[in-house]
Amino acid sequence: MARKNNLVGIDVGTTQVRVIVGEPRPDGTISIIGLGLSPTEGMRKGAIIDLELTVEAIAAAAAEAERMCGFKIDSAYVGLQGLNTELVNNRSVVAVQSDDREIGAEDLERVIQAARVIALPLDREIVKVIPREFIVDGYDGIRDPVGMLGVRLEIDALIVTSPITSLRNLMRCVNRAGINVEGMVLLSLAGSEVALSSDEKELGVFFVDIGGGTTELAFFQQGKLNRLSAVPIGGAHITNDLALGLRTSFTAAENIKIEYGSAFATLASDETDIGISSVGSREQRQVSAKEVSRYMEPRVRELLQIIREEMNRMGWPELPPAGVVFSGGVSQMKGLLELASLVYESDRVRCAEHDFVGIQNPIYTNAAGLLYYVNRQQLLFYRQERSEGTFRKKTGLWQRIKDWFFEIVE
Ligand SMILES: Nc1ncnc2c1ncn2[C@@H]1O[C@H](COP(=O)(O)OP(=O)(O)OP(=O)(O)O)[C@@H](O)[C@H]1O
Ligand SMILES: [Mg+2]
Question: What is the CATH number of the domain that holds 123?
Answer without folding.
Answer: 3.30.1490.110
